């Protein structure tokens, strides 16, 4: 399993476009912005100015709830029987804005100025040849910074215009690579969400699977810097995220949040947690018109509970209960049946003792002599639900 870095993918794209634009730029523009700054860096070696700098923003990883839920239709019972679940490529999700940040004004004068200053400070910091307590050295440092500001701010805008013209190409390149490189599993912290039961569980006819958030199935980071392979809370905002040079200098976890975890505020009712996985980690692929279905292992010991929808048919209830009763690796899973509340807009849940179902269910479900064994079993053992 390789450590695919989703953030680095974007940064490498930007670097490639920068190289392309600088290579094709007229010589006088290069000297205006690049060579002059490089010469100043190499000739003037200073320590970092003794000034207050804003502390970088660091995202503190949130601890997810013990159980995260996946709403499913009746047909997705195969997730339990086959022990595989789909992770979906961003462009196949139901939100057309998914993983589509705005690439505009990526190369601005102010951002370029910040990059050059940061590079100069890095050189100064690494050499450490000046005494910051020396007023003369400090004065030289500030003079160098002002010279950089004047050179960039007074220069030609044509270079930045030309580089920004490449933003649509960069955006398209990022989109294509994202479609190929990552897949997303959308989960929620709420099993009692009426809208999600309607939208994702076939109007309450389906079911919900509760997964342990600490299980290796969705929590399997391979390094401290791995931003994927673990549950991440989705961020809801009014405005689409914008990718600029300044954004690219953010901490990797914050940039990851911006790229892959940001959605419109209108989706906030979902209370989503998502797991981003490299596409190469899949265990199976099912070709399908419009986009391949990527399947990942979903072992039974990752499941903590299953909730059957309030409108689920008796046949489905019995089928699921029997599957659980007849599968030892599912005996630890708690089974619930949802019911509409009499007093409020909400659901009540009661536990189903599926392990106590009559042994005769085995015959009724699978006897070849019966035309519809599941329906007949449901009629005989509906009292279980």
UniProtKB/TrEMBL annotation:
Alphabetized UniProt keyword annotations: Plasmid
InterPro entries per record: DUF2971
Protein name in the entry: DUF2971 domain-containing protein
Species of the source: Azospirillum brasilense
């Amino acid at each position: 399993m390789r450590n695919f870095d989703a953030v680095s993918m974007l940064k490498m794209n930007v670097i490639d476009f920068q190289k392309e634009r600088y290579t094709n730029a007229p010589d006088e523009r290069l000297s205006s912005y690049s060579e002059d700054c490089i010469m100043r860096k190499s000739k003037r070696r200073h320590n970092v100015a003794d000034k207050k700098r804003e502390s970088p923003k660091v995202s503190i990883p949130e601890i997810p709830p013990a159980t995260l839920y996946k709403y499913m239709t009746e047909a997705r019972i195969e997730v339990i029987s086959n022990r595989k679940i789909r992770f979906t490529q961003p462009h196949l999700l139901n939100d057309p804005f998914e993983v589509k940040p705005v690439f505009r004004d990526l190369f601005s004068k102010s951002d370029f100025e910040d990059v050059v200053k940061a590079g100069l400070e890095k050189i100064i910091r690494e050499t450490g040849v000046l005494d910051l307590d020396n007023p003369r050295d400090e004065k030289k440092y500030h003079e160098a910074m002002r010279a950089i500001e004047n050179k960039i701010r007074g220069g030609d805008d044509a270079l930045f215009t030309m580089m920004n013209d490449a933003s649509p190409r960069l955006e398209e390149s990022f989109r294509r690579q994202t479609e190929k490189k990552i897949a997303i599993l959308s989960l929620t912290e709420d099993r009692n969400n009426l809208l999600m039961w309607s939208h994702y569980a076939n109007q309450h006819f389906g079911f919900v699977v509760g997964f342990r958030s600490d299980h290796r199935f969705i929590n399997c980071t391979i390094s401290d810097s791995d931003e994927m392979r673990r549950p991440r809370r989705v961020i809801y905002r009014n405005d689409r995220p914008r990718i600029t040079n300044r954004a690219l200098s953010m901490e990797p976890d914050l940039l990851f949040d911006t790229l892959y975890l940001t959605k419109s505020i209108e989706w906030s009712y979902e209370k989503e947690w998502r797991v981003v996985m490299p596409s190469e980690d899949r265990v199976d692929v099912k070709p399908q018109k419009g986009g391949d279905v990527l399947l990942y292992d979903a072992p039974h010991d990752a499941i903590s509970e299953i909730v059957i929808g309030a409108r689920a048919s008796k046949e489905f209830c019995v089928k699921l209960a029997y599957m659980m009763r007849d599968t030892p690796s599912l005996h630890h899973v708690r089974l619930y049946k949802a019911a509409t509340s009499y007093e409020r807009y909400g659901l009540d849940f009661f536990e189903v003792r599926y392990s106590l179902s009559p042994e005769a269910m085995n015959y009724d479900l699978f006897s070849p002599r019966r035309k519809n064994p599941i329906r007949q079993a449901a009629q005989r053992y509906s009292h279980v639900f």
